[in-house]
Design brief:
With 400 residues, this protein is an alpha/beta fold. 50% of the residues lie in helices and 10% in strands. The protein folds into 3 domains: 3-69, Methane Monooxygenase Hydroxylase, Chain G, domain 1; 109-295, Rossmann fold; 298-379, Orthogonal Bundle (Helicase, Ruva Protein, domain 3).
Length: 400
């Protein structure tokens, strides 16, 4: 039995001892569990795992201190299954949205237990029209997502197997999360956003339960999209000797393999580092579609500048075509959509600085934009883009 299993075993024994009123036994069990987590901290080379074990140890120490200080006291009599006061069931809150797969308004009932801290469950109020460019990506997502939740019966008639998983990959700042939110808003379905940092910070068996709960909620509110960002952190190619991440991986694969055709929900993964994902995830019947979200090309940069500068006055000397040309990729790399937003914000700040001096709001001029371009550097290195292409050729042949 490894340190992780031992820590889990003694944690559960401590909890049972507290329920039975045997606080001395609970203290002994907690001390053993803490010592096992300390051993895990020593042998682990993974920074993320070290933080997980450290947080787990702190939680156990707080419980131990509670017993020693008398904050946690033994019940008056041993309790095996404490009775809870009867409460009237609460009606679940509903979010109302006009769905793209029905002609009438419907209420999407989202149970309270699916609104836990590790899930963000809602129907976004943005759609594809709010995403500049990326028309090919939008069409890919429409076929990969909308077809599954709207036309599952037609797909079955045609012998087309519904997809279970989609992977979006590409440089940071290219809008992967935003376009998934827009897809959910476009198709009017709830979006379940899973926070990998919170998921991975749950320790001693809780992460596996959370993975199961995520998929259970998806089935209960279907049709829906489950979005797991930074999947390389949840499903890494290389893991430490600890079996905690392996348990999460096993549970995730089990849930993916258990999705039945036509169930009405789909899992969308995203990553900036696809080469760090365990290849076991990226195979047919788990992730069937891989979509690259590239740095903005000339057309998209033009749309982004028009979008981010809309609503503000521009001087007559502002030449968007010239700005697009000045932000073309070069040996240094590419500008991301996020960097273009920063350029526009920096130009607006120049106007604000002058307003503080003169009390008047002047139009943004070409000088403001050119100075902003000089200040905001290209944030996507050329070799990183080449690395994405190399990964695609080496690890993935698109399916479906």
């Amino acid at each position: 039995m490894g340190f992780y299993d031992e820590a889990l075993k003694y944690k559960k024994l401590a909890e049972e001892a507290i329920k039975k009123g045997d606080l001395e036994a609970a203290k002994r069990y907690l001390q053993i569990a803490i010592s096992r987590l300390e051993e895990l901290e020593k042998v682990s080379e993974d920074i993320t795992l070290k933080k997980i074990w450290e947080q787990g140890k702190k939680n156990l120490m707080m419980l131990l201190e509670g017993i020693e200080s008398g904050t946690i006291k033994a019940p008056k009599k041993p309790v095996v299954a404490p009775e809870k006061p009867q409460e009237l069931p609460k009606a679940p809150k509903a979010e109302v949205a006009k769905t793209s797969y029905r002609e009438t308004w419907v209420a999407v009932e989202i149970p309270e237990e699916c609104r836990a801290e590790f899930l963000y469950t809602s129907i976004p109020d943005i759609a594809f029209k709010d995403v500049a460019g990326l028309d090919i990506v939008k069409q890919e997502l429409r076929e990969a997502i909308e077809w599954q939740i709207k036309y599952s019966d037609i797909l079955e008639q045609l012998g087309l197997r519904p997809l279970k998983g989609v992977l979006l990959y590409g440089p940071p700042g290219t809008g992967k999360t935003y376009i998934v939110k827009a897809a959910a808003g476009e198709f009017k379905v709830p979006l379940i956003i899973v926070d990998p940092a919170t998921l991975m910070s749950k320790w001693l068996g809780e992460s596996e339960k959370m993975v199961a709960k995520i998929f259970d909620c998806a089935r209960r509110i279907t049709p829906a999209i489950v979005f797991i960002d930074e999947v390389d952190k949840v499903f890494p190619k290389t893991v430490s000797s600890s079996d905690a991440p392996k348990r999460i991986e096993a549970q995730l694969l089990q849930e993916l393999d258990g999705i039945k055709s036509g169930e009405g929900f789909i899992v969308v993964f995203a990553t900036n580092e696809p080469w760090n994902i365990n290849p076991a995830l990226i195979r047919a019947k788990r992730v069937d579609k891989v979509i690259y979200i590239p740095p903005p090309d000339d057309e998209l940069r033009r749309k982004l500048f028009n979008l981010y500068l809309s609503g503000v006055k521009l001087a007559e000397d502002v030449n968007i075509d010239e700005i697009v040309k000045r932000t073309e990729p070069n040996a240094e790399g590419y500008y991301s959509a996020a960097a273009i937003a920063l350029i526009c914000n920096e130009a607006k700040k120049n106007v604000m600085r002058d307003y503080q001096k003169t009390g008047e709001i002047r139009p943004i001029n070409m000088k403001d934009l050119l100075e902003a371009i000089e200040k905001i550097r290209r944030d996507i290195p050329q070799d990183l883009v080449e690395k994405y292409e190399k990964w695609r050729k080496q690890y993935f042949t698109e399916i479906g």
